[in-house]
Amino acid sequence: MDLRIFTEPQQGATYDDLLRVARATEDLDFDGFFRSDHYLAMGDGDGLPGPTDAWTTLAGLARETSTIRLGTLVTAATFRHPGILAIQVAQVDQMSGGRIELGLGAGWFAAEHEAYGIPFPEKRFGLLTEQLEIVTGLWGTPVGERFEHRGEHYTLIDSPALPKPVQRSPLDPARAGVPVIVGGRGPRRTPALAARFGAEYNASFPPIEDVPMLFGRVRTACEEIGRPPAELVYSVALVLCAGSDDAEVARRAGAIGREPSEVRRNGVAGTVGEVVDRLGALAADGVQRVYLQVLDLADLDHLALVAQEVAPQLS
Q1: CA dihedral 14, 15, 16, 18 (to 10 degrees)
Q2: What is the CATH architecture of 2-313?
Q3: Residue 44: its pLDDT value, please?
Q4: Is residue 315 predicted with pLDDT exceeding 80?
Q5: Would you tell me the crossing angle of helices 54-64 and 82-96 to the nearest 10 degrees?
């Protein structure tokens, strides 16, 4: 099972804070460092010193790390024009030596759009679909050929479709592309997009008992278009709250404003033995990768505990 560290910097973090966590992620041999793509704090926090831009952050981390995978979980389709997004992601992939992944979703947090003057259309799924078509189409167009798209939301004419990512598309290794992560819990359209575009399907913060059902929908969608379901990676994102004993679990839960019983129920939480058992149960449900949501970015000992005490027990 792959373990990745997932951060929520809109809650309050500088680039230097994220760099410390990313370097710890790499030093401790986690598979990747991912971040949310939001511009406004959620809940009661003030979000100081303010938001950091996801792709600016990842460009910096691309040069200051060397082995870990990097990406977003997930970028909102409302934030960037798909042509610009394709250029940004391809450039950061080159800067990282081919370690970037793109999580792309429809966007949901209306307040951040209002706060920064970003349009937030009522219907966004068509926007997301076209963005996936355009971004993957631009990357996958052979060098020297042109790309065009005429859709309801976007029109691209005679595009040189440059630059290209370093990586090859997991769906078609003959073409350039980065792994695309499609997430969500919708019953029909999300599984269809995952089957069509995804290298990975991610269920973020689902009820644990729903994971087999969510994965099953994606597998069915793959079969409906003739794609082998096993081509996708199946992942979940869950809050992390681990401790060497109950007191440490309670301390870490309190530091993020949560109750120990709640994080044990909904996340990867508890003592080392409990965390190992939770990850084992997720693996039995078909989970191949877990994004561990780390909310206290100053507590690097938390990451060390998982790397040194939990990870060695995972088969």
Answers
A1: 90
A2: Alpha-Beta Barrel (3.20)
A3: 86
A4: no
A5: 20
Residue with tokens 């050929």: 145
Instruction: Say what angle helices 82-96 and 125-140 make with each other, to 10 degrees.
Output: 50
* Residues 218-270: tens digit of each pLDDT: 999 999 999 999 999 999 999 999 999 999 999 999 999 999 999 999 999 99
User: For residues 99 and 291, what is the distance between their CA atoms, to the nearest angstrom?
Assistant: 16
Q: Which amino acid is at 165?
A: P
Phi, psi of 184 (to 5 degrees): 135, 170
- Residue 15 is encoded by which pair of tokens? 């680039």
Q: How far apart are CA 276 and CA 271, in angstroms?
A: 9
Neighbours of 159 (CB within 10 A): 17
Q: What percent of the chain has pLDDT over 70?
A: 100
User: Where do we find the tokens 């992390």?
Assistant: 240
Nearby residues of 282 by Cβ (< 8 Å), 6 or more positions away? 1, 208, 211, 236, 290
For residues 308 and 301, give the distance between their C-alpha atoms in angstroms, rounded to a whole number: 10
Cβ neighbours for 50, distance < 8 A, ≥ 6 positions apart? none
**Are 41 and 10 spatial neighbours (Cβ–Cβ below 8 Å)?**
yes
**Structure confidence at residue 45 (pLDDT):** 86
Percentage, residues of the chain above pLDDT 90 = 98
